[in-house]
Amino acid sequence: MQVKKALIKNSIVGVWSKISTLLFRIIQVPLLLYYLGVEGYGLWIVIASLPSWLTLANMGFGSVSANEMSIAMANGEVDKARKILSSTVALIATISAIGILLVVLIAPFIPWESFFNLSRSRHKELTLTMIWLCSSVFLSFTTDVLSGRFRAARRAHLSMLLDSFKPWLELLLMVIVLRFTTRYDYLALSLLSSMLVYLFINTWLSGKSLPILSFSFKDIEVSRFRLLFRKGIAFQAFPLGNALIFQGNILVIQGILGPVAVALFATVRTMVRSINQLMEMVNAIIWPELSILIGTNNLVKAARLHRLGVGFTFIASVLCVLILSFFGHDIYALWTRKAIPLPQHLLILFLFPIIFNAIWYTSSVVHTSCNKHEGLAIRYLIASTMAILTCAILSYYYGVEGAAISTLIADFILIPYVIRRSLQLTGDNLSNFLSGIWDEIKSGLHTANKLISRSR
């Protein structure tokens, strides 16, 4: 019953969170296109994507500690959970402070304007832009730890709720800035300001959710850094892989096809990846409970939760792909005010890989939720590297169309391993897994029919 209540709360907030993110992107794109123009918007995407590579410095410490804290609290090990929290916060704070200092010292000497083919007079603007954006990335490192404190209190839905309002805070400050100026450094400063406000609120509320799990200097254990580094380095394969696939291909397209192609690629991908938001929502819903179930060796419930998540994600993703295949072109034209033409065949090419991505993405949360992700990390990094190389080759020969289908290589590499390893971790097998998914679907349809009958 406790798991069901947590899943219901996570589901309600998760749906709102993804709606919030989707609405934010729907509003943000035409807003920036209006103020910056197509070329200026494409350039802003490239500039804003560069600092995302700094997420690698996070080393995944927050994600690892969030899982460990949840498992420790589920087993009644409060002192252990407190030591994990304190050690992780100390380590992340040190890395963030050093990172921000290095950026402030180095950024002024980098010729940003030459890289973006802009005039020398914009050097200071671009330098400040990078400083503000990089600082925002470094400050964001603590968010996973704060999320872990909510999860340890079995209030993961509160963390998700806070995250859902963060884009709106960003949008509010961006609108205020754009009313007066379109300088990139002021836009970047608005993002940094929103991050500071978000961290203040998150720290306060997460502390109130579980007062016994608080930071203390005396609970810092240097010996615990070894586990954080070992697991964290493996976790960093995921943001590195994401950077290769999502930011790396932006840089590849910028270099091969130019900023207008970047604007087309980025906007279409944003619309299409609204389907991926559904997958991410399911992952966020089941991750906290999987950590506790696997950590307490309750594999029967863990296996069922895995089946439910994968089955729902795959069916919902296929339906969304079909809907966007028919209506996506009109939605895109309305969204961008027809500023960027979108051929129907290009839309289909963007949608096609989503189906394959849905097969493994939700299943992968089993690996990460219990910190058994080293094998997945290595394969994800290899798959992402091959995907970006494929993107470069296909973009050169086939333009944006080639870039759109280049991620398929990553899906083909990951599907067999992810499913097999997830079944091992949940004590399941392929036959029971597939039949279990079908049973969950029938159960869901039966419940829906009962609700409809009662409403009549």
Automatic annotation (TrEMBL):
The lineage of its organism: Bacteria, Pseudomonadati, Bacteroidota, Sphingobacteriia, Sphingobacteriales. GO terms for cellular component: plasma membrane. PANTHER family: PSMA PROTEIN, PST FAMILY PREDICTED COLANIC ACID TRANSPORTER. The keyword Transmembrane helix applies. The chain crosses the membrane at residues 12-35, 41-64, 84-110, 130-148, 186-206, 251-272, 308-327, 347-366, 378-397, 403-419. Keywords: Cell membrane, Membrane, Transmembrane, Transmembrane helix. It comes from the Bacteria. It is a multi-pass membrane protein. It is found in: Cell membrane. This is O-antigen/teichoic acid export membrane protein. Its main location: membrane. It comes from Mucilaginibacter frigoritolerans. InterPro entries: Poly_Biosynth_Transport.
